[in-house]
Amino acid sequence: MIEEIRNKIANALSLLYSSYNEVATINIEINRTTDKSHGDLYTNIAMKLAKIVKKNPLNIAEEIRDHITLNDEIVKIESVAPGYINFFISTKNKYDQINTILNSKDDLIQNVENTKNIHVEYVSANPTGPLHIGHGRGMILGEVTAKFLSYQGHKIIREYYVNDAGRQIDLLLVSVLLCHLGKNKHIFVDEKTNDDGHLVTYKGNYVNDVAISLSHDLEKIDKDSVLSLLNEPIDSLISFLKKHKSYSQIRNALVNVIIDKYIKEDLSAVGINFDSWFRESQLYETGLLDEVLLNIKNKNLSYSKDGALWFKNTQFGDDQDRVLIKKNGDMTYFATDIAYHVHKFKNHDVLIDIWGADHHDYAQRLRTALKALDYDVDNCLQIHLVQFANLYKSGQSISMSTRSGEFYPIQDLVADIGRDATKFYYLIKKKEQHLEFDVDQAREENKNNPIYYIQYAHARITKILKDLDSERVSEEDYNNLISKNEVEILGIIDKYQETLNKAIFEIRPDIITNYLYKLSKVFHSYYAETKILTEDIRGERIRLVQCVDKIILNGLKVLDIEPMDSM
RNA sequence: GCGUCUGUAGCUCAGUUGGAUAGAGCAUUAGCUUCCGAAGCUAAAGGUCAGAAGUUCGAAUCUUCUCAGGCGCUCCA
Known about the structure:
Number of strands: 15
Low-confidence stretches: none
CATH superfamily of the largest domain: HUPs
CATH class of the largest domain: Alpha Beta
CATH topology of the largest domain: Rossmann fold
Number of domains: 3
Distance between the termini: 40 Å
Mean pLDDT: 89
Strand content: 5-15%
Strand order of the largest sheet: 7-6-5-11-12
């Protein structure tokens, strides 16, 4: 319908204003009206042309209007000040979408033509403990990103990058070892507290459980040697451990326990399964890290200073150069991340990283480094930065720290409000927005809680339609659906497909949650005001609510939320 | 100081590519059960779209500046 009108206008323009070159290239916008007294569709083309053809926009609108013929579908055209052209569409054609949706068997999603191999990396929290609500938003948005891209038709691999070779693992190992020796309250002489007042070693209750699981391995470490190092700086103990012949085996066992007993369980609680787990240690073992560092050196992008190896970031606009290899020989995250991305570039067309917004500067740094190594960063690497979520409970903001053991595990949130509410609330706003997440509200089972409100609409429709299985309802033209709510519902239905596809292609789940909420709202209003199962126009109303229900089910399915037939 | 995200009703937020009178929910106030689920509905009230200038026929939307808040600017992860 919109295309048809656009063609008619283009035709009129070529007759009227062909002498102006710019007219041929102008974008003819056709939009839906918000006020039905202005018809169904409108265009602002006359106002855009006013400047080019130097005429009063209203006159232009009139000229265009007179060059478009009416037919069965376009029943009226009017030109209105300051220069809108409004189109009135016949009811029969206005609502083709309702039949399209009711008759369709697929998911109403358009596929892209050239599909790509896309690598999506998300969560990737250090394997030092259970996942908590601070990880929740990236977790859910990462999953939705992967899902939406696969709806588009792309081939997706979901990967969790496991930082199993860094300092945090050594600190966790020390913490676990202390527990094993019954010294879990021990604090090292040099153990500083950071700005948040948290310690460097891990103090959560789970550390003790991990120590029990690993007791067989921990027995291999000589107890007396460890005890003798307790009054020295923590790094003495760490270097002692690193020299131990079973060090990598024990570290590996530790990481396995954390991943298998905690992280995978946490992910599964919100329904996430990764296709691949990539370990940082692989970068060392395969020699890729050395290879990449050599490449950086050969391209003259690094230099040595103060015993460390530096990348020449200032050559690319950064305000300082950044360290690749520390004075003590350890790699920085910068170095291993470059190598990891080099690895990912080998087998994929597009890489997507889902990171917290606090990594903004770092993302820029990584991009420039990879660009300097001749990777097509602009086209092939997307780093999606997700703003923080602030969770509230009983009016209090919940703060989080894995090390101190003071955190709210994601599994507790799921147990508290349910998997679907958890997902829904994390998805309710676009990623650039800071998210205020009220746990108490998410637990409520009333209209304060959008997910229940939507579920309730579905439950009500399910109840109405329950006994109608045998009733045949034929395709209708919906001419009798003329009440305010009916017209509004038809209008919302009409926009579903374009809304859905916009959400999928722009990876904006918030558009879907908003849409479903609005649809549910009008439905509830309609339901309270109108009896659906009446004698006279029963069929049309049944089809209307069937369509509403189908959209709710489809929208929830796209978001991977389970519908509730009764509540 | 630099970078970045944000600023819309008392609170939490929508607002299509710049379009016609800026919209919801909560909270407040006043109502609605012979009737498909009241886990609901109806209505009232609530606005300097942070501020200023600019572009435009037309700005919450685009540009610039200012103000306020979050985050980052470690040989941290």
